[in-house]
Structure formats: structure tokens, C-alpha cells
## 1
Amino acid sequence: MPDLRYLTRRINDSTPAHRDRAIDALRALAITGVVLGHWLVTAVTTTDSGTLTDTSPLTRMPQLAPLSWIFQTLAVFFLVGGYAAAGSWERAQAKGTGYRAWAATRIRRLTRPVAVLLALWALATVGLLAGGVPAQTLRTLLTLVLSPLWFLLVYIALTAATPLIARLNPLWPLAVVLHVDLIRFGFGGPSWIGWINVAAGWMVPYCLGSAWARGALTRRRTPLALVLGGGTATAALLLWAGYPTSMVGVPGAPVSNLSPPTLAAVTFGITQCGLALLLREPLRSAMRRPALWAGVALANLSALTIFLWHQTAMLITTSLGTTAGTLPGLSTPPDSIIWTAQRILWIPAFAVALAACAVAFRVFERGGPQPTPAGNRRHTGSQALPPRAVPELQGAEHG
């Protein structure tokens, strides 16, 4: 306990006064939504042939679709990403840093942890194949682990294009999404055209974040307009235009709002961005509490690691659990509301496994281990707490 209080105080004291803690809080909320959403809508079960397959409770319980409105928080992540990248690029220009150096630094921070994940899963794949694991089981595992990486590819592309799109009006990519959906659904165009929205759709919240960094979204009426406009448009699209209710993909459904993004997903994301902007002041007030801020700061320092390894953590827990037999909510089919309640009880176990992964792989997100000066330690009770345990927030950028 003394060490925890000391760490909390050090994190709070090391944070610059000018840092907008609300940005970090929004990123933490966004990554939490994505992780919890995946854990709640993904079930790994055993087929009659003995292979593993992934199923979704939304397939058998479509009434749960509104829950996806809470946990599908990718728009907030792109909002914060646009804010961070635009601000970083402006500071780089002020310092005379060229585009290549700036982009290489930011993209390296994103790709290094991915390379570690891919390398370890490549080794695991070889081992599983050598151990006689069925191809279907291996396909299920790799799909669950690797499919979320599409988000990171889009995020990297938008980051690299920040100097070009930082001042782009969000209405332009929104217009692209509107016309793509009109061609795709209204005029029976080819389905492949929908993949244009992978870039255009997420560019909308990214551009909103860039505008926020420029100070263009500071008036209270702006986020209110985003909430009312985006919410009204989303409701109209769901009620009268035939868009799916779920904001995440449902296996077997003819149309997904997320893969590729539809106009409904984008207008829903605009609503989320407006709500995020409305939460700025309440979050700033909440983040003045050292204990809350410490949790948010630590989560931000491992945000990418958490995102990359959360499905692996779920699979590790499921694999260990199945050795004890069929466990409700873990390895049973998601066919009733009771399963959902049982699944929620497993979330702490998933979180423990994810924490272990974060401890093991977070070092790759921060650029490698750093030496600790031998004499620069503080003793608080039973053990010494090295200064490197405290986040490097002095001068750190948002993202």
C-alpha cells in the first residue's frame, strides 16, 4: 500500500500542468469499450467434430444489439488520434522537424508492438501445427487475434496522412461515405465499393479530432450539434433505411455496419464524438483525483499493448478453463441471456490474463527497457520503487 500511494503521487506530480488529462481519459474509455465489447460478443466453443469455433451471442439474441452502442467506441479512438497527431505535427513543424522524421517516429511506435505479436503468434502457429491442432481450430484462433489489426492499419494510414488531412473539413469524407452507400444500397452497385468507407468513414472522427486540436470545437453548441445531428441521422437510418441495429458485425448477417463502415456507423461515430466533447470538463475534474489519474495514465502507456493482446488473453483464459471441463459462460454456446450474465463473471479473469500480457509486452510499446540509475531509488516500506515505474509524462505527447 505505501508503494501504491507513492506511485500514485509520483504519477500525479510528474504530469505537466498544461496536459489535458481529458484526452487520456477518453482514450482509456475508448480502449476499454473495444476490449469489453470483444470479450462480450465473442465465444469460443467446441464443435461436434472437436474443433474450436467462434460464435456471437448477437446471432441468437438480436435483442442485445443495442449493447453494441455502448461498446463500439472506435470513433472516440480516432477522434483522440486525430487530436494527438495534429498537435504533434504542429509542434514538429515549430521545432523544424521534417515530415519523414516525424512520421517515422509515430509509425514506429505503432508497428513495433505489432511485430512482436505477429512473431510470437507465428511461433505459436508452428507449434500448434506440429502438435496436430486441427486447421479449423487454428483458423479460429488466428482470426480472433489478427482480425482487430485492420483498425491499426487504418490508424497508421491516417497518421501518415495527417499533414494532408489535418485541416480537411469532416464534411468531405462524410460526403464520400454517403455517396458510397447510395451507390451500394440505393442503386445496387458492387459490394466492393463499400471498402472505400474504411478510409473515408474513420477519417470523419479523425478530422474532428484535428479540428479539436486547432481549437475549432471549443464552443458548447458544436458538440451538442454533433450529438443531435448524428443521433437523429443514426435513428433515421436504423428505423427507415434498413441499416442493421448492431454497430458491430454479426456473423451471418447480410450487412455489417462495421465491415466495411456504413453511413449509420459514421453518423453513430459523430454522435459519440459529440458526447466525448461534452465530457471534456467532467473528465478534467475527475482526473484531478490522483488515484483516478494514475489508472488512466498507466492504461494510456499500455493502450496499444492492451488492444493487441486482449483477444490473446481471452483465448489463454478459455484454454486453461476448458481443461476443467465445460464452464458456463466460457466454453458454452451463447444461446440465452443467462449466458451473458455468466460471461460477465469471467471478465475479471480475462482482465488478469490481459494484465499479465501488458506487463510482459508493454516494454515494446515504449521503445525498449531503460536503465535505472543505481542510486536513484526511493524506499517505501518493504521494497524499492524504481523511478522507471512512473510514467514518463513530462513532455510526453497525447498519443
## 2
Amino acid sequence: MIRLAIASDEPCIKDCAEQAYAGYVSVIGRKPAPMRADYAAQIAAGIVYLATDEQAKFQGFIVFYGQDGQLLLENVAVLPSAAGRGVGKALISFCEQAGRQRGLASVLLYTNELMSDNLMIYPKLGYLEVDRRTEQGFQRVYFEKRLS
């Protein structure tokens, strides 16, 4: 099940981000942006959704919002214990459906260029690389998926 996050979900969300991105700290040389995000503010803004299993146990989360006529998928993370079970794909599909329901043309996302797994996963989900930028000291690769 995927539902809107509430304030009491913040500890699980922060813990998930820490676990999901921990392996990238040594690769990037510092904590990736999702490990430093203000999840309390994002939850309060109503832009964080979480996935649970059949027993309502937390599995992962996604952060997205409308921006300039498209949906910006800012972050998706899955607990390592839930990896490989389709949780991430379900969260991304949920985001895409939200974009369609809002009448938006596309989903835009970015990942760090050193997160090589992501560079392979997003094209398999129908995303095309559209840009590379340095932002906040991170080398980011942008991907876009048209929703029409």
C-alpha cells in the first residue's frame, strides 16, 4: 500500500534514507543529498508518500511535487531488507500515475552520476537522460519520462 506520509512517519523515513544511501557516502565522498533532506518540512508540505507491506510495515518512500508543468521526483528510497521486491518500481509508478492525474506532461528526476545502478535502472523504466549538471557540489544526471 502507498499512502501520504504523516509527521509520525519521519523517523522511519530518515532511517530508510540513511540505510538506502549509506553505501554511496564513500563513493561520492560525502552524504548524498537525500541523507540531509528536511523530511519534516517535506512531510508537512504533503510531498512524501510511503510504501508498506501487507502487515502495514514500512518498506520505502518517495518524494515528488509539481514544478514547471511536470512532476519532479526528488527522492525514492527502499529499505535494504525490502530491496528486489518491486517496492521502488511501485513507488515510481505511483508517482507517474499522480502526474497523469494532475495532467502533467512528464516526470523529471535526477541522480548522482556516481550512483551507477540508478543510471541503468531509470532507462529500463522508460526514462531518457536529458541533462547533466553540477548542483550543490553534486554531479547530477537528469532523466525524464513523458506521461502522454
## 3
Amino acid sequence: MIVLAIDTAGVDCAAAVFDSDTGKVLGRVSETIGRGHAERLMAMIDEALAEARLSLTNIERIGVTVGPGSFTGIRVGVASARGLALALGVECVGVSTLEVLAQTAAERDKSVLAAINAHRDEVYAQAFAGGEPEGEPLLLELDDYLARAAAPDTVLVGSASALVADREAETAPDHYPIEIVARLASLAKAQGKPKPLYLRGPDAKPQTGFAVSRA
């Protein structure tokens, strides 16, 4: 199966073409851009397809990171993936960024706690055992995360792990390797239309008193 994988959930904008039969990435493009995913994504998909020497008509499944992560970035990726899947008549699946992080752990056979610094003394987190999720992704208070991170034999991955040593630490942005996104997308069960995984509301809110009345 030929899979097109897309990631716009964080500071990176990435696309990859993956052959699940051989387990090989045929084409891959990834840039750390911070913002501007909507302007760059479609060109990156074209670049990944060109490197793979394939066209969109060869794509049999599309996978996209659904979060948690950047509110705007996730919306761009999910909308693009769903639109392409509809146009091509192929399946579209969502991939959790926390699951991607869990796959980066050196010892995945142990208990892994994947966690993203959500700032404001909050953390996006999910526990995994043997590579499989234990429970749902959560938005935790920092103290709750630190208590869970202190459990014996727990492998920590993700930006929030730096907060264990210093809760005031300036953490680096998380990166979600597109080749892992592609592999997880190829293994994911069909789930209907993927939806953004928002564990808290957007930071931007309408200003009180400036709402426009509807007719």
C-alpha cells in the first residue's frame, strides 16, 4: 500500500510517501517553518511525490497528524488530508503526535510516558506499554505529570520531559518524524474522517463586545 503522510501539528511541515509492502520511504520532505503550513504544504506534497516518482493517483491511503499540538497547524493538515482523500477516493486516517513521540523511545518495550509541554503549567501526555497506548491522551496539570513521570522504570519522551529536572525550563519544540507518521498511518485501522485532537480550546478568542449579531 502506498501511503501519503502529512504532518503540520508542530513547528515542522512535512510530507512523505511510504510503501508499506517494503517498509520503505519513497519520498520525504520536511522543513521546520514554525508557521505558514497552509502556504507550504501542497508544494511539499508535490516534492515528496516527485522524489518517489509517483503521482497522487498512486496514493492508496492518506495519514495525518491530528494532535495534540498547534491549533492552526492541525486544522490545516486535517483539512488538507481529508480534502485530498475525498478527491482521490481513498482512506484517510489520523495519527496522534503522542504516539509518534512514543515510537521515538529507545526502549519501547518498557513503560513510556510521551508528553508535550502545553505551557501554562499544563502538559499533553499519554502512557504506552509495549508500544501500545494505555488510556487516552490527557491534558494534565504540571504537578500531576511530574508525579507520573517519577514512577519507577518509566521512559520519558517529548518536550515535557525537560520539566522533570526544572519545571521552569525553556523546552525545545517537539518534532514528529514523518517516517514514523507514515508507518503508523499504514498500520492504523480505518476510522472514518480523522478529526483534530484538541485537548484544550484555542488561545485566540473573540473580544467581548465586538461580536457581530447574526440576522
